[in-house]
Amino acid sequence: MKYEKAQNILPEDIIKLIQQYIDGGYLYIPRKSDSKKAWGENSGIKNSLKERNKEIFIRYSKGVSVEELTEQFYLTEYSIRRIIRKEKQAI
């Protein structure tokens, strides 16, 4: 999120109207609902996690133990088992 100075982008009459409600404070203006992005779309982390989870499942399918996967991916045993369960359901 980037801050913009209101006087640089809004007409003066709109600024005066907003000042009646919040004078000198910060105001968050949300995106329009049709331009919202899902979590992780901008950074690419969502796709990275999908790939990681597929890799965990592939290794598990090839016989790598849950304990080894916890060490390789720095995740808890519970997280590894949850990922494996979700990947099995996706098939």
Instruction: Tell me how many strands there are.
Output: 0
* Average pLDDT metric: 90
Helix content: 55-70%
The rounded Rg comes to 23 Å
The CA-CA distance between the termini, in Å, is 37 Å
**What is the SS-derived class?**
mainly alpha
Strand content: under 5%
Number of domains: 2
Number of helices: 5
Q: What is the N-to-C order of secondary-structure elements (H for helix, E for strand)?
A: HHHHH
Q: Low-confidence parts, pLDDT < 50 over ≥5 residues?
A: none
**Main beta sheet:** none
Overall 3D shape: rod-shaped
Would you kindly provide a written description of the structure presented here, covering whatever features stand out?
The protein is mainly α and 91 residues long. It folds into two domains: 6-32, no CATH class; 45-90. The chain is built from five helices and no strands. It has helices spanning 6-9, 12-19, 45-61, 66-73, 77-90. Helix 3 (45-61) packs across helix 5 and helix 4 packs across helix 5. The mean pLDDT is 90. InterPro entries: c-mor_Regulatory_Protein, YraL-like. This is DNA-binding response regulator. Keywords: DNA-binding. It comes from Clostridium thailandense. GO terms for molecular function: DNA binding.
Summarize this, please?
With 91 residues, the protein is mainly alpha-helical. The protein has helices spanning 6-9, 12-19, 45-61, 66-73, 77-90.
Key terms for this structure?
mainly alpha, 2 domains, 56% helix, 91 residues
